[in-house]
Design goal:
The complex is a heterodimer of chains A (861) and B (746).
Chain A: H1 2-24, E1 46-47, H2 80-83, E2 96-98, H3 107-117, E3 131-135, E4 158-162, H4 167-171, E5 178-182, E6 195-197, E7 226-229, E8 235-238, H5 245-248, H6 262-265, E9 271-275, H7 282-290, E10 293-297, E11 316-318, H8 323-331, H9 335-353, H10 356-372, H11 379-383, H12 405-408, E12 417-423, H13 431-438, E13 443-450, E14 467-471, H14 472-482, E15 508-513, H15 520-532, E16 538-539, E17 542-548, E18 553-557, E19 566-567, E20 571-575, H16 577-585, H17 588-595, H18 598-613, E21 618-619, H19 647-659, E22 669-673, H20 679-688, H21 738-741, H22 765-768, E23 777-782, E24 791-796, H23 812-822, E25 858-860
Parallel strand pairs in A: 2-3, 3-4, 4-5, 5-6, 7-9, 9-10, 10-11, 12-13, 12-15, 13-14, 16-21
Antiparallel strand pairs in A: 7-8, 15-20, 16-20, 17-18, 17-19, 23-24, 23-25
Helix pairs in contact in A: 3-10, 7-9, 17-18, 17-19, 18-19
Chain B: H1 6-10, H2 18-42, H3 50-80, E1 88-89, E2 96-98, H4 115-118, E3 134-136, E4 141-143, H5 156-167, E5 180-182, H6 195-203, E6 215-218, E7 239-242, E8 256-257, H7 264-267, E9 280-284, H8 291-304, E10 308-310, E11 326-329, E12 332-335, E13 343-349, H9 358-364, E14 368-372, E15 391-392, H10 401-406, H11 410-428, H12 431-446, H13 454-458, H14 461-466, E16 484-490, H15 494-504, E17 510-517, E18 537-541, E19 561-566, H16 574-586, E20 592-593, E21 596-602, E22 607-611, E23 620-621, E24 625-629, H17 631-638, H18 644-651, H19 655-667, E25 672-674, H20 690-712, E26 722-726
Parallel strand pairs in B: 2-4, 3-5, 6-7, 7-8, 9-10, 9-13, 13-14, 14-15, 16-17, 16-19, 17-18, 20-25, 25-26
Antiparallel strand pairs in B: 11-12, 19-24, 20-24, 21-22, 21-23
Helix pairs in contact in B: 5-12, 9-11, 19-20
The chains are: A alpha/beta (861), B alpha/beta (746).
Main location (chain A): endoplasmic reticulum
GO biological process, one term (chain A): heparan sulfate proteoglycan biosynthetic process
EC number (chain A): 2.4.1.224
Amino acid sequence: MQSWRRKSLWLALSASWLLILLRVFPVLRLAEPARRQAGAPQGWPRWLDAELLQSFSQPGELLEDGPQPPQAPRGGSCYRGACFDASRCRGGGLKVFVYPAVGPISETPRKVLTSIEGSRYHTASAAEACLLILVLSPDTPAGECHPELPQWDGGKNHLVLSLHPAPCLRIFQLGQAMVAEASPTMDTFRPGFDVALPLLPEAHPLRGGALGQLQQHSPLPGVALIAMAEERGGWRTVGTNFSACPWDGRCEQDHGPKQTHPRATLPNATFCLIPGRNPDALHFLQALQAGCIPVLLSPRWELPFSEVIDWTKAAVVADERLPLQVLAALQEMPLTRVLALRQQAQFLWDAYFSSVEKVIHTTLEIIQDRVSGASAHPSLLWNSPPGALLALSTFSTSPSDFPFYHLQQGSRPLGRFSALIWVGALGQPPLKLIQAVAGAQHCAQILVLWSSKKPPPPRWPETAVPLTVLDGHRKRTRFCVMREGRGTTLLSQASDRFLPYSAISTDAILSLDAHSSLSTSEVDFAFMVWQSFPERMVGFLTWSHFWDETQGGWGYTGERANEFSMVLTSAAFYHRYYHTLFTHSLPKALRTLADESPPCVEVLMNFLVAAVTKLPPIKVPYGPWHQEAKPPLVPGSPRLRSEPRPAAQDCINQMAAGFGHMPLVSSRLRLDPVLFKDPVSVLRSRRLHEPARPPPPPRSSALSQPVCPVVPLFMLPCTGTVRPPGLTREPQEGRAVASSLWPGREASLPQVPGLPGTILEPQGWSKDAPRSQFQGFLLDRAEQSWEGRRWKRRWPLRPGRLRHCRRPALPASSIRGQHRAALPIPGPRVKVAQSCPTLCDLMGYTIHGILQADPGLRMEF
Amino acid sequence: VSGPCRGQWRSVRYPMPRECEEEAVGVIMCASVKYNIRGPALIPRMKTKHRIYYITLFSIVLLGLIATGMFQFWPHSIESSGDWSVEKRSVRDVPLVRLPADSPVPERGDLSCRMHTCFDVYRCGFNPKNKIKVYIYPLKKYVGEAGVPVSSTISREYNELLTAISDSDYYTDDVTRACLFVPSIDLLNQNSLRVKETAQALAQLSRWDRGTNHLLFNMLPGGPPDYNTALDVPRDRALLAGGGFSTWTYRQGYDVSIPVYSPLSAEVDLPEKGPRPRRYFLLSSQVALHPEYREDLAALQARHGEAVLVLDKCSNLSEGVPAARRRCHQQQAFDYPQVLQEATFCMVLRGARLGQAVLSDVLRAGCVPVIIADSYVLPFSEVLDWKRASVVVPEEKMSDVYSILQSIPRRQIEEMQRQARWFWEAYFQSIKAIALATLQIINDRIYPYAAISYEDWNDPPAVKWGSVSNPLFLPLIPPQSQGFTAIVLTYDRVESLFRVITEVSKVPSLSKLLVVWNNQNKNPPEDSLWPKIRVPLKVVRTAENKLSNRFFPYDEIETEAVLAIDDDIIMLTSDELQFGYEVWREFPDRLVGYPGRLHLWDHEMNKWKYESEWTNEVSMVLTGAAFYHKYFNYLYTYKMPGDIKNWVDAHMNCEDIAMNFLVANVTGKAVIKVTPRKKFKCPECTAIDGLSLDQTHMVERSECINKFASVFGTMPLKVVEHRADPVLYKDDFPEKLKSFPNIGSL
């Protein structure tokens, strides 16, 4: 009782306290808007007589504001239309001439000159150039700034380039010349006309450059959140919990040990604070390289390449006048954004800043974009990997034409592939190969690049897809004429096979050599894998590179190993864009080097794709039946290390030097079909066909099909061709029975002895069967199957492309009997006529029998 | 996926371990004991006769409390809703202000102004929502000394604009808290105001302070004869949102370029027309053009005939149709703006002013504007990517315009038409849209870290919905040295758990083992009983037995790679796990697992179906043992759409399907199945009665797929037909030379 009273007393006391508090401090009131005094205006008033209001313009005023001639440029301001004559670039696109250096110049301008001369826009003649570049050297004395150049013309169509803040830019009136300057201040920068460059350190490499230091996508837990740039080029890291001290320097006791070596600290920090007072933008590049998000505090300088790079995706521009606001924003930044900013900063470093060459080429690409107008790079191409330098706008401006953006956007390239068969100097017409490839489901065309000394055969085999013969000689001749000094030569050039032939109509290319040996099903599977990874090369045979300690250089080997880093282009799928990239973006020196030996071309192509994607290629299985067909270009194996290295072997080192780093990435996996060499099915199939018999000899049609496996019924992976008599098309949409697929074909189908049903032959289908009915997917459904469960199988079906396997080697009756015994399925429904297991040979077992159709079985599509 | 809080990630608090809970209870008990001791000393012992007194007091206080509470909450909700607070007045009643002739005039605009020099950001101060506060001066009528008004009081559009600001989140009526000030002096059209007197009116605004943080709106700048491209009214440091800036007057990063509003839009209904080939390739509809341009246009038309249509004013207008709504080509009359929908490209030429209202009409018609006005700063060019919606042609190239446009591929034109229409809908449609876009741009400059992204500005909603944005987009192969963290979810199967721990600890790349003890009724075994392994082992106790505990972003996870593994998966060999990790390193943004599953469309039932049979395709992997990036843990816990997480916890099933959906949805990529493995348990283990159990299981799993697909609004899962094996798997090669020989059992 007493406790109750005490409680109530306490309650009453506290309640009255609460009451008093609430009365005294209106702050505690929960409703946010304070009550206003009566009569004060709240918001913009609604006018009672709003209909009286007039429009801001008179009816005709917007139409006729008095014509006026175009204005001429005024007062020092320049913009592209007036000060840059783009018409000079119309003919052959951007052509760039650079004034040669006069006298000795220092390291950085030399690198700049080399980069410009290595660009694909470079021309040696000032007359045909539409952009003339003057490279300023930081050590040019102020007196010699005046450009006494014959083509100067008030600076029109000139670009004055300086990688360091040069005194000349300040004291000299540059007239109508564009200025590409490191860290220009916002006051003098003319947007859309000048180009902002990054401030590069003295030792910035010419090519390749140091890779980004970001090791992982997300920041490690518990590492420094913020690094603060210091005056003398060092960094100071600050933990997660700190106040505004980085600004006033009063917190000496708070922060951790001082770090002056940037590489040691930076990769750990998440944000890098860079003060904006002095344009000491060296910090900026350090942060980008480290994958540390640059936080720029009111920069007075224009961010590099701000015309095309969306810096809001990679950096934070904050106002140093609101320190608490900035810190709170950084600390509370959502993890998603932190992840995205880090990765973007790192991508930008790799794509545009890591070498002098990249910086210069980006500058030229920006001007090229301005000149080309509508066919410039869209923003997406500049701001997502691999960057605009590697996505040539001359190829296309639509992201879906490039291999890189499918996976980023969650799409998948559709369609078909073109087989490009290269017939070398001594090659024979690859008839078997053509047959095998033409039989593939997604093959759209076959191109034979005839570079053999013999004339091409007058007649080619009949194939279901169009076959085109490209004359390798003609191409090569013209190709050689283009190069000065080499003249026309009849020596075949290995890089010819990577020219962007206009005859290639599909995105995917299956590159083949005349002596390659592939089966149809291997091709089909590899193409499906390529569709999942369109930016990579998907190949059958692999090489791997290694660091050779004894030679102190790179080597590569064709020996089978647990890792690989290159796939052979003698049998590989890749995107046709790589032909364009190979021809137009690689330095001429590398291509010349590659032409001298065929293995080098393979290495170069692999280097190129790896440098662009930063990912390893993909290997798909290659059947054991091809082992006798040795890959033609097996390079020297490491076992022969004592022998002098052949010239071809050395090209990998020259390539690595040309790229500036080793781009190849190793992979330890191979992509197989999901049921590849499944132990259980092997077990079962062994039970099914004892004793195994050798496959019958191939038929005369020279179709190099492997023998089909015996596959347990429930996992047959391919198109069933069943012809149940008497069934007609059903009214439901999207569903048809087999008889409507092949009307009237029954009589012509050959009967397989011993089997009560039929096996369909592919010949002639494409000619008179109604094609439209073959479109779509053929869905093969057995109502009952192993273990009493349903199974479904979808298989894309192309007109006239149904294929099937060799006829059975065993008497069918015995198979049927065994199947019945092996599979616990009751009744007569077990029998399925299966032909053409498209992946069967890949799955590693043999079909020795083809089971018979059940009349009740249907097909859907 | 947006807006997860960084703080959450860094300081996530997982359910409190039991020891801690007990400790907390202990503290409370101590407190109450203390109270018992000290209580009598504080409160005098009550007598019975005082009881009624106390009860009365108590009830009075209680009543008062309730009344106060009602008073606190009730009236405010009325006050803040509806039009109650908005005042209704007549325009005629606005107060009159007489400006003396010698009142100060602001200086002319400072061309070197930038946000960090001329803008007083301190006024914007600390603001948790990262929104600037905008104050609108009350409307006044300014007259000169002679009593002549300096401008027309307020135009319909400016009134709309101020109403839009006032209704937006930016508005504040507290002048002391405002960051941006908008005068109520209408400057939209320079023709309808007197320049010097308007400037004087601006200068006497209460917070003018040289125009700092003042935003002026103007659409028709300049006047005859020279038609300046910026407002001629001296305005000192004030920001100018102007239509028709040229590059010479536009202060990059300070001013805002806005469109010239076309009042015609309000009158005409112009439904969207799909991007199809249209009748005319190129159309010019402007009437007041310089004779030089007219000649060029006539030449264009002569050269290309039907494809080019050049319209002009009608000489003989029929009755009742306003001149603005008709255009003529030689005697043939066309309705304007309807005729714009007949053309693929529409010219927007420079008039006396650079900014032309026709741009708005053209965009609205889904016609791609061809802008021929050198040095014109396009509206909102700071954030809008005009390359995607327009073609800018230099004036001197006007005669080549046809061939320039012809070279644009068909697909790109259609894309531009869609984009043009989208720009109109989002930013040109109304005065409100223009005002809000302007304020958003200024807001983004002041709070850049909270700025709206390029995609948000430029991508039409259909694109935004349809696209994926992979959070791990950088191609990066993490170093092997980092290793992975294994997370074992367990309930009470200690024996099998220990076996799993022992097996997993043999994997070379394992760097830490985390056991999530999901059983609240039983304590985990003592430290001494756990198997001794070479890596740190941590036990985390959970507060509730939930499946989602497996996917919680525990602070203990320090590696990027996470291996989720059940406590009964004892069949996986060390080679298989190590290989799985290697595969994950090559595909760090995907789920990498062992047994694969498939989703199928059931035509008969018209819904999705779960398939565990041996098929050639894979669209999911089981997370009974799977590698994935730890970021997906964070996504699963905090960003799972809809009620999926709770649904999974309630049904105690399908957490793996949910994870598969989540990863596929955010990355748009398929899973990777590793090695031939089909099941986690041995094939012989399935009992006879397992079949029916199996079938209800299948039905449940199918239900999950259908449920998740409806929550996600799409079927994100991707089907692939490949799996990953070691390079030399099943090759004719000496076994002992292979890296991962012990792979291949089912």
